[in-house]
UniProtKB/TrEMBL annotation:
Pfam families: Nfu_N, NifU. One of its GO terms (molecular function) is iron-sulfur cluster binding. It comes from Pseudooceanicola sediminis. GO terms for biological process: iron-sulfur cluster assembly. Belongs to the NifU family. Residues 3-89 form the Scaffold protein Nfu/NifU N-terminal domain. InterPro entries: FSCA_dom_sf, Nfu/NifU_N, Nfu/NifU_N_sf, NFU1-like, NIF_FeS_clus_asmbl_NifU_C. SUPFAM superfamilies: Fe-S cluster assembly (FSCA) domain-like, Hypothetical protein SAV1430. This is NifU family protein. The lineage of its organism: Bacteria, Pseudomonadati, Pseudomonadota, Alphaproteobacteria, Rhodobacterales.
Length: 188
């Protein structure tokens, strides 16, 4: 098994491409070892000292490290853990735990049409580009012109995330949806 690695815009996060499907649909975010109990692979990766976050996409795994850890020391252990997991035949997600299908929060209210347009633009224009960097951005809410987005994987804590939100996503949404006045990140 050959596992490729790619750097991300976030220096604390590295993207691993195992050459096979990680999740059939959706994404899965594990911001702590406790959250990783739903996934044998995430639990195995959190077993590597210095790992602070795991994120799964369709064909990739991103790992976030602590500031004190060095990739030169972590990378071999992480590659070994990913290889061992896929060779073991264990599932990525335990039991009936399903990843988040769309990742977007539901929205009940008068702005349903606007929210639908926001989600459509996120799914078609933003999320594919962000997945290339090992992360995901999902809709969290819309209130009086402000779009609230949740950043996951390599996007969470990325030094360029504010620039991505303000100059990229906010400009895109404001261009296509005049009701949007601002985009803000949220922590979930």
């Amino acid at each position: 098994m050959f596992i490729q690695t790619e750097s991300t815009p976030n220096p604390a996060t590295l993207k691993f491409l195992p050459g096979q499907t990680v999740l059939d649909a959706g994404t899965a975010d594990f911001p702590s070892a406790t959250a990783a109990e739903k996934s044998p692979l995430a639990a195995r990766l959190f077993g590597v000292d210095g790992v602070t976050g795991i994120f799964f996409g369709n064909d990739f795994v991103t790992v976030t490290k602590s500031d004190a850890s060095e990739w030169d020391h972590l990378k071999p252990a992480l590659l070994g853990a990913i290889m061992e997991h896929f060779q073991s035949g264990q599932p990525v997600m335990a039991g009936n735990e399903a990843p988040v299908a769309s990742g977007h929060a539901t929205h009940d209210g008068p702005d349903g049409e606007i929210v639908g347009q926001i989600k459509e633009l996120l799914d078609t224009r933003v999320r594919p580009a962000v997945a290339q960097d090992g992360g995901d951005i999902t809709f969290h809410g819309f209130d009086r012109g402000v779009v609230y987005l949740h950043m996951q994987g390599a996007c969470a804590g990325c030094p360029s995330s504010t620039l991505t939100l303000k100059m990229g996503i906010e400009n895109l949404l404001r261009h296509y949806i005049p009701e949007v006045t601002e985009v803000r990140p949220v922590a979930v």
